[in-house]
Amino acid sequence: MSIDSNHLGFRQFLGIALLTLVSIYVLIWIWVIKEPMAYEEYDYSIWLAKMTLVREGKVGSLTILGDSNPCAALLPERLGPGVVNLGLPTGTPIEVFHVARNIIAGPTHPKAVIISILPSDFVSSEHFWDVGVSYGFFSLRDLEEVRAQSRALKDDSVIGPLSPGDLDVRLKSFLYDIKFPSFYFPALIASHGYGRYQWNSERLKLVLADRGHSYFGLDKGSTLPDHEASLKSFVPSKVLDDYFNQTLALFQSQNIPVYFLSMPHNEASVQHYAPGLKEAFAGYLNQYAARYPNFHVLGDTFPIYPSEDFGDPWHLNEKGAAKWSDYVAKLLNDSHVEGGPFGPN
Amino acid sequence: MLFNSLSFILFFLPVALAGFYALAAWNSRWAAAWLVAVSFVFYSWWTASLVFLLAGSIAFNFLCGALILRAQQREALQSWLLRLGICGDLLLIIYYKYFFGLLNWLGFHGLISLSHPYSVVMPLGISFFTFTQIGYLVDCKGGVVKTNRLLDYCLFVTFFPHLIAGPILHHREMMPQFADPKTYRFRWENLAVGTALFVIGLFKKVVIADYFIMFVSDAFNDTHGLPFFNAWDGALSYSLQLYFDFSGYSDMAIGLAILFGLRFPANFNSPYRAANIIDYWQRFHMTLTRYITLYLYNPVALWISRRRMAQGKSVSRKAISTPEGFFSLIAFPTFFSLILAGIWHGAGLTFVVFGLLHAVYLTINHAWRSFGPRVPETPPHPVLRITTTVGKVGLTYLAVVVAQVFFRASSVRDAVRFLKGMTGAYGFSGHAAEAWTPRFINPHLVLLHGFVLAGLYIVVWTMPNSLQLLDKYKPTLTEIRLNSPILFECKPTVVWAVVLGLVSAVALLEITGMTEFIYFRF
Prior knowledge:
The complex is a heterodimer. Chain A has 16 helices and seven strands. Chain A is an alpha/beta fold. In chain A, the strands form two sheets. A five-stranded parallel sheet of chain A has the order 2-1-3-4-6. Chain A has a two-stranded parallel sheet with strand order 5-7. The longest helix of chain A is centred in the N-terminal third of the chain and has 25 residues, at 10-34. Chain A starts with 9 loop residues before the first helix and ends in an 11-residue tail after the last helix. Chain B contains 21 helices and no strands. In chain B, helix 1 runs antiparallel to helix 2, helix 6 crosses helix 8 (171-179) and helix 13 runs antiparallel to helix 15. Chain B is an all-alpha fold. Chain B has helices spanning 6-24, 28-43, 50-70, 75-108, 126-141, 150-158, 160-163, 171-179, 188-208, 213-221, 228-259, 277-281, 286-310, 317-320, 323-345, 349-371, 382-408, 412-422, 443-462, 466-469, 494-510. Among the domains of chain B are: 6-186, no CATH class; 273-408, no CATH class. The chains are: A alpha/beta, B mainly alpha. The interface between A and B is large, with 39 and 34 residues.
């Protein structure tokens, strides 16, 4: 190579390029690790609140586990002083199992547990990596368990395609564990680096004060179809089914009764549901009820509420949540669920 | 495996490179064998059973090639062996790419009875490695291939930078490089130039091409009553997505080859700057154009010429200027080659229409040259010159965009509806899909998107491309004309090093998911 006076050698050229790359990366990396509240998606503060409640052992006498639907629909203030809502946005049986395990490992155990997971969250987990893993909810060991389980069951629906030696998944788990900046860059851009700090901080306080409850949509009604409307049939993923089974087995081993309670579906979605979906889901739950003596299905497995009670296609709004929580309090009392009596604080 | 995945960049590539140069310092044959081994790992990353398919295809073609070479004095036997080889290759590609589509189509139209639709997972890159090998067999028969060494042949077919989506290589340009000891010597220049091209390609893919994914799917997924602005936005977004996706892939493939001391032919040379369709095909997917010309167009044109000569007809330039001569010597081979090129992309009727449209364009272009008025190539007045160039480039691009609608649409009906939308047949704004896509509700986002489109067209039409930027280091085997000012020539200076570092950082930060390259599905 010919080098004139302004030119560097190729080795130096690459060295400077690498130094630039590393400098930028390290700066962003520090920010990613230090200030997640400043840039993370709005669900992050909800997750953080639930993780805090579990870590501090504030799980109540009746703990609610599940996805974002119970998180929005069940108001602890209307259910009773001992009720804590640990439903997680985008939660599936995998997240539910890990919350359950952390609760059992903690100092206080609930007298009873309510689990509420949408049928679609038994079928697939689209946000396993970019929500729960990204928020730091899973340890590297937890992720290794999910990988091993997926491999054993030959089901890549949660963790993605399995490569030789599962190198892709192992590398991804490791990179998430060290908070590799690439995974957080979209959130950094969307938040302009710091734009979500105030919102996340306020929401964290609010969710902690409301014992885990958080609304999602707050519209006065919604007529758009929900996730279940896109399900052609109810075929649970092997991995998600396995984690649901593990969760029930875990509570069984601790003699903690578990109640499955389906959250209301929007009446606008009903016409879109595949024939047999409701029966298949009920059959799936009943099969577990037959297997585990501590597991019970409460109420209808596909309750329907008017569209005006929904703040978005999936979640109840303030009016809907109040109505539903009052109904659930009565249902819990009627069913003599442990940890009662239930009703407004 | 994908070039734009963290597993590839952080794990596979460093291991492959380190192993290659470590072994090359000891023995170049071992280094070549290492490259074959890692290429098999690359290919079978998600589906281990594909190793057998690829290995079987290589063994079959190598054997056919060896037998053809051995039967040098026996023309008839060579022809039979060549037919056997080509039939074997075509059967493989037909089975994986077309058979089930055809079966389901027949079932759908009630021509046969099917209990349910059938499908098979199409092996990645099957069109590329099969056609590369057919070319090799044809050249064995044609006397172009003189010797064949198994290891070099395996490397020629499997070398991972080109395996899945090209460039489509010719053994004549690769075999000497594999045999050259200089290829296996580590050079910092190769590392710098290869890295620069790879990073530019990665940036094009993850930052630019992937930006358009949602805009394109919004427009193409629901073509019912697609209004004018949405249709044009979808068409132009797809056009730019395809441009940056494919040029990004090509840059990455060429850059990777350079990292291993090899040079590929160029595959992409600013095609949207083409002033006519003939020029466009010399700039877009250049190695496919070369392949089609060598192995489809030329043999058909030669066969027609021989028939005409046997019938006592002329094959001269004068004969081409007659309608009958033009049809048989130009139009027929063009239609034959381009329709097959369209089908090469996939089994759908949309690809046939895509090929057909380009055949029409090319035929019109050739006809204009043969029968059109004689006008000076460069008008004397500068304003006229610029206007003419803009007009030619604009018209060519418009024709390309129309064909791309068929290339992207899921059915011919959808494509026609989409084109109707582009004419304003369904009104100018407002679309049912907006209820689901708030992108066009926020006027600031519309403005920003407009700026992105405009900025990218400035890049596409006026800036030097990546191969021109690095032209000084001869990144490809193809001569790419350099018309760019010296300001844009990439040199090993501090400024360029910092720019490369910045571009690498942004590209790496943008790797969040894994989106396939558009050409991976062909």
